[in-house]
């Protein structure tokens, strides 16, 4: 886990990149009904704006309350690192899925012009995204990003501000 703000920012950049790219591919695949090169191309084209939006939401809206909730109700500073990682990850995924599902609904409405469909698109996207995002975060993205992060930045190599 990151030890201070600078490490948190670098870690968040890496985690957000991984999650947004994967979830973009997943959502475009759901929309197109097939995973192929065209699907990945479509996901990649929409990725930059979604990534910036997700980073801003993660850093400025979700991270503080999610960590606060996790450490107030689920774990304490003496808990094992794995328990803390799982608690914080779960507390981050829930609001990010809600926010990014809304983003996806807005994106769909911009393309179709059917703004009256936004609530139903948003509400149907939430469970579809949650069943992919939580396991992907806990089983794939979390371990992968933690490994890459600590390999690239061993403890103590990023100076605290």
Please, could you describe this protein's structure?
- The protein is an all-alpha fold.
- 83% of the residues lie in helices and 0% in strands.
- It has helices spanning 5-32, 37-74, 81-112, 118-152.
- It is globular.
- It starts with a helix and ends in a 9-residue tail after the last helix.
What would the keywords be for this entry?
161 residues; mainly alpha; 4 helices
Assembly state of the chains shown: single chain
- Whole-number radius of gyration? 17 Å
Instruction: Please trace the helix and strand order, writing H or E for each element.
Output: HHHH
Number of helices: 4
Secondary structure class reads: mainly alpha
Low-confidence stretches: none
Number of strand elements: 0
Beta-strand content estimate = under 5%
Number of domains: 1
Characterize the main sheet: none
Tell the overall outline.
globular
Q: Overall pLDDT, averaged?
A: 94
Share of helix, binned: over 70%
Report the span from N to C terminus.
Answer: 17 Å
């Amino acid at each position: 886990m990151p030890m201070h703000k600078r490490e948190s920012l670098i870690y968040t950049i890496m985690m957000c990149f991984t999650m947004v790219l994967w979830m973009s591919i997943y959502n475009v695949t759901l929309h197109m009904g097939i995973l192929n090169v065209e699907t990945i191309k479509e996901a990649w084209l929409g990725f930059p704006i979604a990534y910036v939006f997700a980073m801003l939401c993660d850093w400025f809206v979700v991270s503080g309350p999610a960590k606060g909730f996790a450490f107030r109700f689920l774990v304490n500073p003496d808990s094992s690192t794995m328990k803390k990682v799982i608690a914080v990850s779960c507390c981050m995924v829930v609001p990010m899925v809600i926010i990014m599902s809304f983003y996806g609904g807005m994106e769909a409405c911009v393309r179709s012009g059917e703004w009256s469909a936004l609530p139903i698109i948003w509400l149907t996207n939430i469970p579809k995204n949650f069943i992919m995002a939580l396991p992907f975060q806990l089983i794939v993205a979390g371990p992968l990003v933690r490994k890459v992060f600590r390999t690239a930045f061993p403890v103590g190599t990023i100076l605290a501000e």
